[in-house]
Amino acid sequence: MSCYSVLKEKGLRVTLQRRLILDYIHDNKDHITAESIINHVHSKFPQVNKSTIYRTLDLLEKNDCVFKSKSQDKTIYHHAEEGHHHHLVCNRCGKTFDYDEDVLLPVKKKLEKTLGFQINLNHLIMNGLCKECRNLK
Length: 137
Hints:
Blueprint: H1 3-9, H2 16-27, E1 32-33, H3 34-44, H4 50-62, E2 66-71, E3 74-79, E4 85-90, E5 96-100, H5 105-115, E6 125-128, H6 131-134
Parallel strand pairs: 4-6
Antiparallel strand pairs: 1-3, 2-3, 4-5
Helix pairs in contact: 3-4
């Protein structure tokens, strides 16, 4: 279901600002920062307040339209229609490797079974060293 439909179904207006943000997130297949979203909106409508953009991003996250995560001290967003996936980020060279959420399913099941803890693995970013950087020692 599209984000537009989700918002309308929940009785939320699809304002011009929300439309600009949604379109930008949808059109960018990469992960994008709040700063790049703000720059995009301001390039079209400079009068839009940053707090409006952040509130919109929070609203979109709460309604499962976007996923938000932290990477290298930045908050990044990606469209929920891309699905759940995770990232490995090399601390040395910065390369990012995507991997499917199924990789962590055994960990999730074990935590639920042994501790009764239901973990949220929507969009996880793990840091370490890639093969090439490990070989540079």
